[in-house]
Amino acid sequence: MSYQVESVLNAQAHLGECAIWSEREQVFYWVDILAPALNRFDPATGENRVYPMPAHIGCFGLRENGGFIVALRNGIFLTDAEGNIEKQVGDNPTDHSKSRFNDGHVDLSGNFWAGTIWEPRDHKGGKLVRVKPTGECEVMAGDVLVSNGLGFSPDGKWMFHTDTPNHVLYRYPVDADGNIGEREVLREFERGTGGRPDGAAFDSEGYYWTAMFDGGRVLRIHPETGETVDEIKLPVRWPTMVAFGGPDLKTLYITSSRENRSAEELAEYPLSGNVFAVRVNVAGRPEPLYRG
Ligand SMILES: O=C1O[C@H](CS(=O)(=O)O)[C@@H](O)[C@H](O)[C@H]1O
Known about the structure:
Blueprint: E1 5-9, E2 16-22, E3 27-32, E4 37-42, E5 47-52, E6 57-62, E7 68-72, E8 75-79, E9 85-90, E10 99-106, E11 112-118, E12 126-131, E13 137-144, E14 147-152, E15 158-163, E16 168-173, E17 184-188, E18 196-202, E19 208-213, E20 217-221, E21 228-233, E22 239-245, E23 251-256, H1 263-268, E24 275-279
Antiparallel strand pairs: 1-24, 2-3, 3-4, 4-5, 6-7, 7-8, 8-9, 10-11, 11-12, 12-13, 14-15, 15-16, 16-17, 18-19, 19-20, 20-21, 22-23, 23-24
The ligand O=C1O[C@H](CS(=O)(=O)O)[C@@H](O)[C@H](O)[C@H]1O binds near residues 165 and 259.
Family: Belongs to the SMP-30/CGR1 family.
Keywords: Metal-binding, Zinc
GO molecular function: calcium ion binding; gluconolactonase activity; structural constituent of ribosome
């Protein structure tokens, strides 16, 4: 299939991430981790509101009662609808001078999950935590360098998770109580020019769409075999995350990064850091809301 990818927001973000569509508001939320800020982009008007954050913001979830749950470098907090911190509900499970939160999502039961990146990159020190609606916070997984690509399959049976620099996509079985079992490798991505799996989203048919960081493309992945079944080529090399949005959930929004790029690389890919949109022929699913 051929796709028309459009740069819809000339954000020039340092590190755009955490693409989330709000069904309730019909707007696209995203973060610039390093700004640090949460952003609200309204495709109907083109307005992008910026809510500055007090520390690096890796990811966030939309709260059922309005506002956000945000994973900042120093912990996990509830905020109001404009990103003002209300209260802390969790910690960064690792030394936050050496790690920050990265990708995250809300699961089908309304729990918020967020993973960390181990910045010294000397071992797989990244962790994945879950915050229940009650505020109870626990470490659920680890043994990754950069926690990424979190996703919960629409049938509720699997949690997908990637470790980007290690080029690996894992899946974990999810039991009836929402707890995860032993992980298995679903796919190890080839090293070379194709990129490595970053942020992701499931579509309504249960396929997993992942932004291929350093590969300039988004892949649609078969959830059982891990094979690529479709590909969208992008005008930037470092896409970071995808989210299905629009009234029919058939517009794929894509964030991207300029972090650590040389002047030559940015001259070759001047749209790096922008937000992109592309119409696709399968709908996503509404983003679950954090029930706390
Ligand atoms: O999600 C992220 O992934 C990238 C990829 S990698 O660690 O370089 O493989 C990372 O650069 C970025 O900082 C992070 O947010």
